[in-house]
Specification:
heterodimer; A: three-stranded antiparallel beta sheet; B: alpha+beta
């Protein structure tokens, strides 16, 4: 997919920050490898212990936007193409997508450190 | 695909084309799969929850999807040459719309009438009946009344001692406030006015959660016996009389016999009514032990109406012995909103039902038209099906096509409603309670929207279903003359006509019932004469404290006014027809103990329900009248004589009774000279008069007893009756001058001719009748159009058949009979169902009708012949057309 002119002019991945919760979750879900839409939902539910469960329509809309913005891309050579007879589309992270995800993670980590220094959150709970 | 899947597919089809192409199929499959898994793992309700979430997600994503699409299209990046399906379809629908202007105009107008009339009536229903009252937690507010079997149906005042007990014992209530309307002359303002005054206990404003923007509300000390009198002004009175002067607080006002200090002014939007118009002034603590009050109650948060009513029932069992020596009585609790709207509720609901029928008829009519148009496009659908066109797409297209005129109709209808509501409110004869709450607001627009969606979808569904049920290959072969399809379409159209006829029969019968009831009311024998009689009130205050002083004033008034040219007779009474007279028990035998009465200054006398009477008695209106009253009002004296000035001096005093009372006590004999006991006094019947209608039409009214005016202890408001030789209102200036020559300070108010008093009492009926007649007319016009449409189409379809019949020797009249038969078959079924509905609904309307039974044969007959006549008119052109078919050319062309 070509990048949108708006975003192609923005070289810096930081321009995407902060990410919405859903976008970040999708990027996280795809960080282990390409998945189809339903698998992404399942992975998000697993990662968040069921506390986040996006509506399907909202998720596909986000996939479309992420694709247009060049953060994910449709994978033609999916691993299990033979077994997937339903013609599902698989999506994987682009380099840009991976960079944006790690920048967002760093940003959140920084915020978390601040929160800990202000004793808003118990470090022992995080460690456990 | 499951229903839900289809529904999602419809929603997804509204997304931009690019999104649909890439994701639609997979998205819907995932949604369905997730729902299935959710139901299996977590149960049905979890699935429903997820389904709702998915729908919300799809709807909320629509806007974002289009914005994103627009952005990418604008920058020329992802251009879609095919354009978008929905937009294409809209453009297609619009073209179709323009291509058939007559069809479109007819649909728009029909729906505008249906939606407009419904929106107008619904805005009144919504404002008056549905919208919560303008108080905090209004659902917790109620009124409590006493209900005694022996006093008849009407709820009666609650007594002060009961209120005290209820406050201590009824734990389901946060509080109870006592109130009563009185009227009195207010002095101390810039001009002396006569006004309604509400007397309330100090809790009143706390219970309503109303604060005064200026000054304070009442507190507990104000209720103490002997505390200084205080008053709160209504905003209206403050504005009119004091020009919103805030220094009014602390000033003295004299209301009736009492001086009181102004302590506050109510907010402008405060509008509380009991029976009459809002009190100009509000005064606390005016009731004395033993007197009756209305009770306003607020339920505790968390207590339900049923719980509170149960508690009142159990308290009534106890209070029966404590207050009413065991007399059968119960507490009646009415939600405040029901009490305020009780007089208009039935009529409004009837109107709402009637106008709902209009909408159904309009939609059935539009469905007939849409079906007719769709049938012309049968070939197009067949080709599209044959090429693999999706059924949903065709349905969507039909809905879109119908949606355009439906929206146009709705816009026109709502504009009509905005204007119509104004007209309705102005035409409303009696001031409508909560009229200021009536407007075309958001809930009303929501209602109009629902009606519009309904009107857009329902007519489109029928042709779509038809097209679906038909085999495309057969359609392609036979085209629009496919016999199966034609048959099905005709049957459906027939059904739609039956629906229209049925509903029209109900509306026409309803309107006839209403008209007949109104005619009965207008033509009813009132017992008095309504022409050339002028009535007005004269208020005599503290200057006329003794009966002698008042008597002298009226002797002089009757003398001076009676001498005016054009005046035929003058008299006075405490209660004119169509105003509430005092009432009380009249006994045939003396009572062992004197009956106790509660007297209300200016409001009459009520018996104390604590006492149970002995011997034969009946409850009667008791009206004090001056000499010459019956001559002036035109009430016929049947036997004996009417009052003369000396009657008050007789011992025992003389009274007159009406024919109803005479027939009840002394059937078959002349009552003159008989004895009755009234107000603990023996009285002799001096004459028997005709029964005069004193209450609302339709209620039988109590028997009547007349006592001499001069014997009445204290009354403030006296109504003067003047019989004139010509237009009574033209004599008014002369009459006013004559009265002010006796005493310039006596206010003359409530000036009205007897005719207008009578008209006012029938105004509600007239209003209902006018609207019902209007609705019935609309229904008939729409039904006629519906019948015409179906017949015209049938004739066009059967041209060949008719041509063959004519060629075989059938006469023109035979062909006409065939078409007429078709018309009558359609109407006949509708008539039968309609008449059954009229009987079922009519029986329930008995309470609204006067002198006409709900299942009135005349109204049913009128509806029957009315619809037959309409069928005849609607069938005329198709019949003529069928009879004039040229057999030779028709057969040749086929």
């Amino acid at each position: 997919m070509t990048k949108s002119p708006i975003n192609s002019s923005i070289k810096d991945a930081a321009a995407f920050l902060p990410l919405t919760e859903l976008w970040f979750n999708i990027l996280l879900a795809l960080s282990d490898g390409a998945c189809h839409g339903y698998a992404i939902i399942q992975e998000i539910e697993r990662l968040t212990a069921g506390s986040v469960s996006p509506a399907t329509g909202t998720m596909y809309l986000a996939l479309q936007r992420l694709d247009e913005d060049g953060l994910i891309t449709e994978k033609q050579n999916r691993a299990n193409a033979d077994t997937d007879r339903r013609g599902r589309r698989y999506y994987g992270l682009t380099k840009m997508g991976r960079r944006v995800a790690s920048l967002e993670a760093e940003r959140l980590a920084q915020q978390l450190t601040v929160a800990m220094s202000k004793q808003l959150i118990d470090r022992s709970r995080l460690d456990s | 695909m499951t229903f839900y899947g289809r529904f999602c597919a419809t929603l997804v089809s509204l997304y931009p084309n690019t999104f649909q192409k890439r994701h639609a199929e997979e998205l819907i499959a995932v949604v369905v799969h997730r729902l299935t898994i959710r139901r299996k793992t977590r149960g049905f309700f979890a699935m429903v929850k997820l389904a709702a979430k998915e729908i919300i997600g799809l709807i909320s994503g629509l806007g974002r999807a289009w914005i994103a699409q627009k952005r990418s299209t604008r920058v020329g990046r992802r251009h879609t040459p095919a354009g978008n399906t929905t937009l294409t379809e809209l453009a297609h629908a619009f073209r179709n719309w323009r291509r058939h202007p007559w069809h479109t105009t007819a649909v728009i107008l029909t729906l505008a009438i249906g939606i407009g009339a419904n929106t107008a009536i619904f805005s009144v229903v919504s404002g008056v009946l549905l919208r919560p009252l303008n108080y905090q937690e209004p659902d917790n507010l109620a009124l409590i009344w006493n209900h005694f079997d022996w006093l008849g149906d009407a709820p009666t005042w609650v007594h002060d001692l009961q209120v005290k007990s209820l406050r201590d014992e009824a734990s389901r209530f946060e509080g109870l406030a006592a109130m009563r309307m009185v009227s009195g002359r207010i002095l101390g303002g810039p001009t002396p006015v006569h006004a309604d005054v509400a007397r309330v206990s100090s809790e009143f404003f706390d219970l309503l959660r109303v604060n005064t923007p200026l000054g304070r509300t009442f507190n507990e000390e104000d209720d103490d016996f002997g505390a200084p009198w205080v008053a709160i002004l209504s905003h209206d009175y403050w504005t009119r009389e004091f020009q919103q002067d805030s220094s009014v607080i602390g000033r003295q006002l004299r209301i009736g016999f009492f001086d009181m200090e102004i302590i506050g002014v109510l907010p402008a939007d405060f509008d509380y009514r009991m029976y009459e118009a809002l009190g100009k002034t509000v005064v606390p603590q005016l009731w004395s032990p033993g007197s009756g009050v209305a009770v306003l109650a607020r339920l505790n948060t968390g207590s339900s109406f049923a719980q509170a009513a149960t508690q009142l029932d159990s308290l009534a069992a106890d209070h029966r012995n404590r207050f009413f020596s065991g007399a059968s009585f119960e507490y009646q609790m009415v939600p405040l909103i029901n009490d305020i709207t009780r007089e208009v509720r039935p009529a409004l609901l009837v109107l709402f039902g009637a106008v709902g029928f209009i909408l159904l008829i309009a939609i059935a009519n539009v469905a007939t038209m849409v079906l007719g148009r769709a049938q012309c496009r049968t070939n197009e659908f067949a080709v599209r099906y044959a090429l693999g066109g999706s059924h949903w797409k065709i349905l969507r297209e039909l809905i879109l096509e119908n949606a355009l005129p439906a929206i146009a109709g709705a816009v026109l209808g709502v504009s009509f409603a905005v204007w119509g509501v104004e007209v309705l409110l102005n035409a409303m004869p009696v001031e409508l309670p909560r009229a200021r709450d009536v407007s075309v607001d958001l809930p009303v627009l929501g209602f109009a929207l629902v009606a519009t969606v309904f009107a857009a979808i329902v007519p489109a569904l029928i042709p779509a279903l038809h097209a679906r049920k038909t085999d495309p290959s057969k359609l392609l072969n036979t085209g629009s003359r496919n016999p199966a399809l034609t048959h099905r379409t005709q049957r459906t159209k027939g059904l739609l006509v039956v629906i229209q006829v049925t509903l029209s029969v109900v509306l026409l019968a309803g309107a006839t019932l209403s008209i007949r009831s109104f005619l009965q009311v207008s033509g009813a024998d009132l017992g008095f004469s309504r022409e050339d009689v002028l009535t007005f009130s004269a208020y005599l205050m503290q200057e006329y404290e003794t009966p002698q002083q008042r008597d002298e004033f009226f002797i002089e008034l009757e003398d001076r006014v009676g001498r005016l040219p054009g005046v035929a007779a003058v008299s006075a009474t405490t209660a004119l027809p169509f105003s509430a007279p005092s009432f009380g028990p009249v006994f045939l035998e003396p009572q062992p103990e004197p009956i106790r009465y509660t007297t209300w200054p200016g409001q009459g006398v009520e018996p104390d329900p604590q006492q149970l009477p002995a011997g034969r008695w009946l409850m009667s209106d008791i009206n004090a009248v001056r000499p010459n009253y019956f001559n002036t009002t035109g009430i016929t004296v049947i036997s004996g004589r009417e009052f003369v000035q000396q009657d008050a001096e007789f011992s025992p005093p003389h009274v007159l009774v009406d024919e109803t009372l005479a027939a009840a006590f002394w059937p078959g004999t002349d009552a003159v000279g008989e004895t009755v006991w009234v107000f603990n006094t023996e009285a002799t019947v001096a004459g028997v008069v005709r029964h005069a209608v004193h209450h609302a039409y339709g209620s039988p009214g109590r028997p009547q007893l007349y006592i001499p005016y001069a014997g009445v202890a204290r009354t403030l408001r006296t109504s003067v009756v003047v019989r004139t030789e010509k237009d009574p209102l033209r004599l008014l200036p002369a009459i006013r001058t004559a009265i002010h020559a006796i005493d310039p300070l006596v206010p003359i108010a409530d000036i009205e001719t007897m005719n207008s008093r009578v008209n006012r009492s029938t105004a509600n009926q007239r209003f209902l009748t006018t609207l019902m007649t209007g609705f019935a007319t609309i229904a008939l016009i729409l039904a006629a159009l519906g019948i015409y449409g179906v017949l015209a189409f049938a004739v066009a379809n059967r041209r060949q058949e008719f041509a063959v019949r004519i060629a075989m020797g059938a006469t023109r009249s035979h062909i006409s009979m065939l078409v007429m038969n078709h018309a009558l078959r359609l109407t006949g079924i509708g008539l039968l169902i309609g008449m059954a509905m009229v009987v079922t609904i009519g029986i329930r309307l008995d309470g609204l009708l006067f002198g006409v039974p709900g299942a009135d044969p005349v109204s049913i007959a009128v509806a029957l012949f009315g619809l037959l006549a309409v069928t005849g008119i609607a069938a005329w052109w198709p019949v003529r057309h069928a009879a004039s078919i040229d057999a030779r050319s028709t057969l040749r062309s086929h």
